[in-house]
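Loading example: each entry is read as two labelled lines plus one structure line.
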Amino acid sequence: MYVSPIREPLIKGSKDYGQVTKDILSPMAGKPSKYWYMGITLSGTAALFGAWATFVTVYYGIGTWGLNKTIGWAWDITNFVWWVGIGHAGTFISAILLLFRQKWRTSINRSAEAMTLMAIAMAGFFPLIHMGRLLLGFFIFPYPNTRALWVNFNSPLLWDVFAITTYLLVSLIFWYVGLIPDLGTVRDKATGKIKKAIYGFLSFGWTGSVRQWTRHETVSLILAGLAAPLVFSVHTIVSFDFATSVIPGWHTTIFPPYFVSGAVFSGFAMVLTLLIVARKALNLEEYITIGHIENMNKVIIITGSIVGIAYITEFFIAWYSGVEYEMYTFVNRATGPYAWAYWIMMTCNVITPQLFWIKKIRTNVVATFIISIFVNIGMWFERFVIVVTSLHRDYLPSSWSMYKPTFVEVALFVGTLGIFFTLFLLFIRVFPVIAIAEVKSVLKSAGENKKELHHE
Amino acid sequence: MEKKYFKSIEELRVDTSRTIDIHAKGDKHFILQAEKESAALPPTSRRDFLKAFGFTIASAAVVSSCEQPVRKAIPFLIQPEGIVPGKASYYASTFFDGIDYCSVLVKVRDGRPIKIEGNNLSSVTKGGTNARTQASVLNLYDNIRYKNPLKEGAESSWDLVDGEIVSKLRQISSRNGKIVLLTPTIISPSTKAAIAEFVAAFPGAEAVTYDVASASGMLQANELSFGKAFIPSYRFDKADFIVSFDADFLGSWLSPIEYTKLYMQNRRLTDGKKTMSRHIHYEGAMSLTGSNADYRIQLRPSQQKLALAHLLNELKRLSGQPATQLPAISHDMSDLASNLMKHRGKALVVSGSNSKDEQLLVNEINHLLDSYGNTIETDVELKTRQGIDSKMATLVDEMNAGKVAALLVMDVNPAYDYPKANEFAEGLKKVELSVSLNFAQDETSALTTYVCPDHHYLEAWNDAEVKTGYYSLSQPAIRPIFNTRSAQESLLRWSGNTDDFRHYIQNWWEKNLFTANDQHLLFTSFWNQKLHDGVYESAKRETDPYVYNPLPAEAVMQKAAAATLPDSIDLVFYTNVSVGTGKHANNPWLQELPDPVTKVCWDNYLMISPKLAGEMGISDEQLVEVNGLSLPALIQPGQEYKTLAVALGYGRQNAGVPANGVGQNAYALLQAEDGNISYVLSGVTPNPQSGTFALARTQTHHSLEGRELLRETTLEEYLEKPNAGNEAHEKAEHHMKTLYPPVEIDGLHWGMAIDLNACTGCNACVVACSAENNVPVVGKEQVMAAREMHWIRIDRYYKGDEHDPEVIRQPVMCQHCDNAPCENVCPVAATTHSNEGLNQMAYNRCIGTRYCANNCPYKVRRFNYLDYTGADAFKGNRYDPTEMTTDLRRLVLNPDVTVRAKGVIEKCSFCVQRIQDKKLQAKNENRQLRDGEIIPACGQACPADAIVFGNLNDKNSKVSQYFASERNYHLLEEIHTLPSVGYLTKVKNRTV
């Protein structure tokens, strides 16, 4: 395949296939570093903290949170939407970019997808815990029962259940299917007997025959086709939780595109946050190059700008609608008691990402890392602003109220962060963080050695 | 004979060998059939056995591991007559606690009184109630009730205490020692007879009346003006022009339920009425009545006397009498005087002051306005205030001087609520015999040697004459729960009369009332009828000729002429609509009731004007010390510049949980003026302190933000255009278009109409709702977290500037929208629409997503954030700081309404249990439901008849007529939720 010579090589360091395998499998080999142990201790502690908060919530009730008669959702749903949003990058990278034949995705899709799965799992936890009574979670499934009880298909919360579970399942399958050839490689390189047996089982007897490869490619493509619309549908449906309601600030038709771009925005930011650390720690700078980071930053500029325009459009529409409640809600967002949250959101989501227009900044690893953290924070506040500031002052001023999180709520969020990072740390020890087979497939056309050949 | 060997008797008797023999002989047919049968059966192998065995064991284990709660339903051994299990009975009774009077019906379910309703047959209260009356049923189940007679704090027996008390009384009496029986105002003629008998039995005994909410100034003034200490009947219904000087007659003054009924008769604009009274209110602190007035004028209480004198002067001038030269005041009374004169004979001036002088001036004003005989009836006396403050003061002095040998307190608690409570307590130590007849633990009973606990009024027989000729009866609605005895019976027993009090009352009625009646020939039928009705209204009137004597008022005018006007800060003491004087402080429903003006519950506080607070640098909730009392400040819009106010009735020390330590006791600050307790203290200096104290408020935002949620107009505009102020309704109707098929409800379609013009915000509905629907009490901490559970709330907004705002109120409960935003968002369909238009909750289906609460534009849905009721499956996580879930207090629960568990949403159901009950009744009687037959608890309780409920599909129903009114609108109708609750615009009789 022809690749323009001006393009940066996707893989640096004139690798051959053997070297690629060795490089990528190196984080899995040997004993973990002390940084890894420190990381997993920290995240594991955070996870235990979350477990404690879960117990407290289930035993004593949602009263251990800061919610009240006016504000029925706050950190719970903020965290839910935030995690769902983060879970958007992986599938976007692997499915949409696959369909668009973006070769640069090969270096990042594996870890991004893994992150997606973990994020979706974390997201799924919040709708369950926010009911306070986890044991009744099964009520939301339409299962046949003698009492003829059925779920309410009009409720966006039910749509969420289906959207999230579908997305989780398809992403999981997609990720695993992509993993199979690499698991074969891991099996072949494995030294211990047990390890060999386990990876042998997990790789489903992958031999790398042409027939297997053809089928693998076909399945990948079909799954990509299936997953691509899901990227848009999941957050669209999540946005329906708000858009179909009557609360000013929620009842907005702009929400589906606004939420999807926001999700991709936050997802890429989280991928960057993780990979900038991972590529350094795992010595994968030659695979995840500045070029990759730059590409992702470009996606961030685009999605960040869409989000910014959406914020402004909301204001315009609030004024244009002539609805006094709507107008008040938006003025209140920017100037009311929660204005600080709004301005954090505006700064982190709209202003700082614009710095990526400057090439020096978007190719700078440290700057990217900092801005990606900003975006993570900004996107969390976006959901907080939508959920809490819309609710705290809605129609009847008599019921207006204020919200303050409690220790338990913070602990639940910290807990999910803990589980997320624990899983990620386990992931880098257990599975290849970069799709070996896919990287190899682009090595010939976009590797540095190929580029060099062209130059000669 | 064949010799037969046998192993057992069975073998011998039943010839088992024979059947075996047949087969043994080889019955081929049988064998073949048996083989065939066994082939048809599936072969049972060892494996099958193990499977079945395993399955059985496993399922047995599973089933037995699910612990089934043991529920015992014990039927009556002998079915009591007239009691159907599961069906409520109603008994007419009378609530009088020395302060409020109300004729009531007691709803009894399975032997337990669970709800108080107003009695429509009474022409005094006319079916109305107030918050305290509604809450009184919970006092029956108060955790701090005495369970036995006590001697020196230890449990004793009636025989023992009776013996000791009687011997001591006799001993004291024989040496002419002074015996005092201290009671609140007694309106029961039989009790008065019993007291008289007691006083007669012990020479030297005396009964002293002590009123906590005193009207002794008025009694004395009337004695001077008319020659008799009495309180007349005020006819607010006959008055077209009402001027009140700090008389909170809708909330706490004399007979608020009666006055609310009467006042609203002349204020309501439904049923084609086109006129309403004008109400002008002068006050310093913002009161419930003041906030309902057409014009509220700020007047510092210490200037009130002079203002009244000025008004009298102007009236005199208008009627051509010589005026007195008076010091100038900032208020011009000439307009008011000429307006009053215009309404001569139809005007009414009242004052809430306990100053004899002020009441004399008011008498003179009313005399000049021809109010007597028109808007004030002197031939029907109100009997609910009879205490003269100076008599109590004398008693306390005598006690301290050691002149009182025996003190019996009956239903009063001076150790808490007497201004000089310490002196009283000191004096009590010098009393040889001290007996408390109070029914529950309190500060006074803790100091007495003997406690002879009275019944709660729902356990006792009693009678009352609230106004001249207006009699009513109390009857037990439950067998006494504890080893208590009616106080009257105790007195009779000690006087040597062993009659039981029921019989005693009957005797009294037979002698005094039956003889005058002309309807019943037999006393039994008379008695049964009156007991059934709860009331007996005879034609008896006071016959004394009232001759008005203007001289005392003239003397006050002369005094006023010489008065100087100090520019000091006044402190007003008031009783609120919830705990009132503090007598019912240990009632969680009342403690959690938000004040109608400030929306604060669980505390008292110092109300301060925004201007004064600004000048002194006092911020909201900052602690302020005033005359030794440290209270959190509450900046109250509309408070007069230099007027502070504090509620009485808080700071109980010995009243149990939750009353103990709630708020501060302000009684100690009260001072007497001319022998009468003054509820105003002049010349106080508030000292801001460094700390703050958080108050629990159910509403924290007080402006409507220009939203058309609460629509109002003036009478003039209304007469010109009936939909004045409600123009937005037409616009909303015009825009009411939908893509969806219109909501159609056949048959019954429940709806509620609320007349904002009638609602005073008295909160009776809130307590009634809590009682009817088992609404949990959550305590101060949770109210501060904005988690109160009330199904109905009264929103209060201020309009205008903070220094002199208008107040508007709106009761809000579930609007039962026909296009309900809450219903379609529930993922499990736990909240649905009934085919009668009710928005209903299936509590055990609710999983607690709270999406419905978020999506409710009215914010009426309440979530059980914690295990407030003890209904949760987990043990040990109950949150009940107010001790509402003790076994005793739980007796008040309505068995028709589910007690909700943690994690469940709840809200107003339009009292669906009442709807079902009446529907069933109509079905059994094979008839249609009648309009007005179903009344939800809030509507039943309302003393202003502001809430109307009925079938919207019946065009003749009252609610349909209200809905058809041009004043009708729906809350947030523009968002197309199609509420089943309508509001009628508020109309104020004022010229803007």
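The first strand of chain B starts at residue 89 and ends at 96.
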